[in-house]
Amino acid sequence: MSREVITGGPNNMSLMMSLFSTEEQPYFVFFSTTSGETLKMQIRGLVQEDGSGESWNVTAAMELPGPLILRTEVKFYYSAKFRRGTLNI
User: Fold this and answer.
1) Domain assignment of residue 79, given as a range
2) pLDDT tens figures, 45-66
3) Domain count, the chain
4) DSSP string, 7-66
5) Model pTM?
């Protein structure tokens, strides 16, 4: 398991749009990491990390790169205010 630092990502509105999208019409959000990867995800759950309304404990389906569409569930912390977070893959 490796730890990735998120250095860029969506705002609160995009997180909510992804959360309330459907499998038939998914709304994906993208996160940039320090390793230079761009991670494509569909948000499945958001829990406030604190009372600010900007910090989230996120559950998402992350698309894995490759010829087949494969998704894995990940959980991570993300601050929409600073567009930063941490993710264990």
Assistant:
1) 3-88
2) 999 999 888 999 999 999 887 7
3) 1
4) EE---HHHHHHHHT--SSS---EEEEETTS-EEEEEEEEEEESSTTSSEEEEEEEEEESS
5) 0.89
